[in-house]
Known about the structure:
The chain has helices at 6-12, 28-31, 91-98, 138-147, 155-168, 174-187, and strands spanning 20-25, 39-56, 67-88, 104-112, 117-124, 149-150, 153-154. By secondary structure, the chain is α+β, with helices and mostly antiparallel strands. It has one domain: Gamma-glutamyl cyclotransferase-like (Hypothetical upf0131 protein ytfp), CATH 3.10.490.10.
Amino acid sequence: MPIDTQALNRGRHSLDNYDELWLFGYGSLIYKVDFPYLSKEPAHIHGYQRRLWQGSSDHRGTPDSPGRVATLTPVNGAVCYGIAYHVTQEEFEHLDHREKNGYLREEIDIFFQNGRKVRGLVYMATPDNEAFLGGATIEELAQHIFNSSGPSGDNKDYVYELAKALRARGVVDEHVLALEQALLKIESR
Ligand code: BEZ
């Protein structure tokens, strides 16, 4: 039975006191923007790395055979580059639903390219959520991703789209690039 974090997120942070908030996107929020926003800006956060360590039973896999999608793992000194969206608080109903499989909203400092810093939110799936799969070698992760598919499409396309979107923004993410290369190698066999 997949977990559903919608109610947890609603109870966790009351957004009632905010008309507008900044949301940091580092995974599908970079390339699948199915919500209105007031503005968006390249941004980064400190202390986290992007990793495909979260199970997906609702988008890129199934409950019997979950795929793998991005979450953030804490690493001292790391920087994760993504996109910050300035959104009205109403958008979180849709976003909480879209990312309901284990992701909790956390408060975080978001840094823009001009050095400006804002307090915002990010969705994070931590090792204590039931859908968390954790790490493995790049080859094992790629094989798992290659074999997975769900209602939102093939899991490999998640990696290809994320890699393409990061590349288009000049972001070098070794983990995502290594997965993309390993997937292309599997495809060429
Ligand atoms: C993101 O792209 O920021 C994101 C990734 C996973 C779940 C929710 C959001």
